[in-house]
């Protein structure tokens, strides 16, 4: 009998957004669960470990580089070590440095067979500083990328801005990532069941997690900014054509496609075909059965930079029967 997979939650967000505060909330609440914590800090002298409460928690600190580049091997080794005593904890929390691109962290759960077998990437949770987010977008790509990869977003420090500014920040976030759940918070205060064990990265839960999967916003963002794009079709998809198209697309444009997700109706297949990708890596599986009377609609979402929307739409249309 297969062993249950250990859920992993990745906490990310720009410097000072409130990640450690959120982590401490998770570790302090009386939920009866134990978590192993992996803290990544950029720089040789680590202080994050000292900021994390509950000395009896398993805290592993990686401070020899950014988790998204030089230490992915360390992440795999730490998780491999944890799996030898996984009966001692209920889940793993990974807090990334504020300068990390969460994409390669997520890719770890695609590329290493042992990690993939024994753990389950549950969700990428991004904490956003409502007061400073719009300014952070001008300082580099990190704040954008953290929002683009998110399954759940905590729009934090809402008490420091007025409602008009809050609406502007939320609209900007929505333009980059239309399918993440947004929760407005102060001091990272949130019910833990809103962020933990959400199965947000689970192929078979895409639609359940995203009831507004196809709600369209306005695609009027400047082309080199991060944006989200979705497309749907009522006709069935030719699986061979789709496989060739999506494979070539991710090889050519994968660096700019941070996340992609889809649910496809394959002609004659009794189940939905579901897939998701992070950059150039993709996984797929058969999902839930189509029920009698279900509209067999195929749906795709892309989040990335420099998305050629017309080319994506045309490529998808060419895969239809």
Overview of the molecule:
By secondary structure, the chain is of the alpha/beta class. The chain has two domains: 6-201, P-loop containing nucleotide triphosphate hydrolases (Rossmann fold); 223-317, CobW-like, C-terminal domain (Hypothetical Protein Yjia, Chain: A,domain 2), CATH 3.30.1220.10. The protein is built from eleven helices and twelve strands. The strands form two sheets. It has a seven-stranded parallel β-sheet, with helices on both faces. A hairpin with a 2-residue loop joins strand 10 (271-278) and strand 11 (281-289). The relative contact order is 0.13.
Percent of sequence in beta strands: 25-35%
What is the H level of CATH, i.e. the homologous superfamily of the largest domain? P-loop containing nucleotide triphosphate hydrolases
CATH class of the largest domain: Alpha Beta
Numbering strands along the chain, what is their spatial order in the largest sheet? Answer: 3-2-4-1-5-6-7
Compute the number of helices: 11
Shape: globular
Content-based structural category: alpha/beta
Number of strands: 12
Gyration radius, in Å: 20 Å
Largest sheet: 7 strands, parallel
Helix content: 25-40%
Query: Which regions are unreliable across 5 or more consecutive residues at pLDDT < 50?
Result: 42-58, 60-71, 209-223
CATH architectural grouping of the largest domain: 3-Layer(aba) Sandwich
Order of helices and strands: EHEHEHEHHEHHEHEHEHEEEEH
């Amino acid at each position: 009998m297969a062993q249950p997979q250990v859920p992993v939650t990745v906490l990310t967000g720009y410097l000072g957004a409130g990640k450690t505060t959120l982590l401490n909330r998770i570790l302090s609440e009386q939920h009866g669960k134990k978590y192993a914590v992996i803290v990544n800090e950029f720089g040789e002298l680590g202080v994050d470990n000292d900021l994390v409460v509950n000395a009896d928690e398993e805290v592993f600190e990686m401070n020899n580089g950014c988790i998204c580049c030089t230490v992915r091997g360390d992440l795999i080794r730490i998780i491999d070590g944890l799996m030898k005593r996984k009966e001692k904890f209920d889940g793993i929390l990974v807090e990334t440095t504020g300068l990390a691109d969460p994409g390669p962290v997520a890719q770890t759960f695609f590329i290493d067979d042992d990690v993939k077998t024994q753990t389950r990437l549950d969700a990428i949770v991004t904490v956003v500083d409502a007061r400073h987010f719009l300014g952070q977008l001008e300082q580099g790509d990190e704040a954008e990328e953290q929002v683009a990869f998110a399954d759940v977003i905590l729009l934090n420090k809402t008490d420091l801005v007025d409602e008009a500014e809050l609406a502007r920040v939320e609209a900007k976030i929505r333009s980059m990532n239309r399918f993440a759940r947004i929760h407005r918070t102060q001091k990272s205060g949130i019910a833990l069941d809103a962020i933990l064990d959400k199965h947000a990265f689970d192929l078979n839960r895409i639609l359940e997690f995203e009831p507004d999967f196809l709600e369209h916003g306005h695609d009027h963002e400047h082309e080199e900014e991060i944006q989200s794009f979705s497309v749907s079709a009522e006709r069935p998809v030719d699986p061979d054509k789709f496989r060739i198209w999506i494979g070539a697309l991710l090889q050519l444009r994968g660096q700019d496609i941070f996340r992609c997700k889809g649910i496809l109706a394959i002609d004659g297949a009794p189940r939905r075909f579901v897939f998701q990708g992070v950059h150039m890596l993709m996984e797929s599986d058969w999902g839930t059965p189509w029920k009698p009377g279900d509209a067999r609609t195929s749906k795709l979402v892309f989040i990335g930079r420099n998305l050629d929307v017309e080319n994506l739409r045309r490529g998808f249309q060419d895969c239809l029967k």
